[in-house]
Amino acid sequence: MAERAQLVPQYDSEGRAQFVRQYFDDSVETTASADDFDSAIGTVVITDEFTSTPTITITPYDPGEVTGWMNAFVRGSGVNGKTPYVVIDCTNARYGGIPKPSLWTPVWRAVDDATVPADGRPRPWALFDNKSAVGDVLTLYNDTAFASNAIEVSFKPRWRYLDTQRAFAYVESTGLAVELASSIAATGLPTHVHDQFTFSGTPANSATPTAINMYACGVDDTSVSPAGGDDKLNLVFIVGQHASEDQGNDACWEAVYFYTDGTGTIADWFRQHCRLFVYDVNPQGRYYGKERQTEETGGDEDSNRAWDDSGSEQVNAVKTAMSLDLTRTDICWDWHGAYFLNGNGNANEFGIYVTETIEETWRDRVNTLLSPMFVTDIGTGSAGTAQEYGNDILGAQLCSTLEFPIAFTGYPDPQTGYEPVIETFVEAVKDMVAASELTLTTITGPDLLLGAAGV
Ligand SMILES: [Zn+2]
User: How would you list the strands of the sheet with 43-46, edge to edge?
Assistant: First the structure.
């Protein structure tokens, strides 16, 4: 009896529907409309079975705010030891064919959620061995089979709510996590969660609304401290504001991993002179498939324009948490990805928004250290941003919005791609401390972060 190929939706670990290849047949062409299952991806056409030369055609349609259109699961691809051809037809995609193959680098990774990497990192993404484009139609394939029973294909590396949960859990496992006052005050919620929201409405994707945690935690190696009685620099990391700017999450968490696991002189200096406060801002936007904005009961917001008003429940929660957690902010970095899917031209560049002279100094130092990489000065930011909040309300000495490059270009995987950049951030801070451009604060009382015990 011939088996029959079929596309059915399957919900991934964050509740997002994905198309999943199931095996019933040997070579039956199947066409499925996105609307048959979900609003997530567009049209998926399987033109062959994996027993010969597997081909998967993905035709994105106008996704609105849906980010799921960028992703497809291909399950069973290892069954026959074959590598699928993936054909992505962008002719009718949003923005008149953008993302075009010439600008955009699809990636794949093994997906096996039952096996979580011990270091807490998401599974690394990989380039396809071969890529060819005809117009806006891109064909991708690998030269060798891969030993996985499922892969995910995406327009770019992506970061899920699930990955945020794993990242906080990993930091907890290192012994360097500090539960912040905001989390302690939020009785009944998990450790490192200061608030929780359940979206009421119809989300952009097909995920079933559920309670989504607002995470924040301190990260501090209390076994080391600056010489001479100075306090550490308090570094506030704001991450995940714009839902589909996955690179910002990858880069920020790589900085946290560098703090917890990094080796070498600069990593030692980092732990000795800095402690981190990590705030995740827009988990609802990521969970419910938004491109940039939030998915909040009461309306959507651009979270990075909502720091000067009360429009975003998630930003409000983070501001409240910060008021409980922070007695002094020295450095505030807001981690983003350059979102050329929105039409942003900064597809391949690494940009830093700066406002004040000291921030220009830091950016210039980073640029020198990264040379010949070009760091774009992309302006001073807009009203209502976290950068503005960090400067004006938190009173940070140094505050910048970081726009990491799109997709894979120049960044083969989060660790090897971003870690050298993170090292330059820390190196530049170290140099600025040495040059008295940044100031360590002498401890005059108990450190609130470390609690009344002062340990
Ligand atoms: Zn952004």
Answer: 30-32, 43-46, 55-59, 85-89, 137-141, 130-134
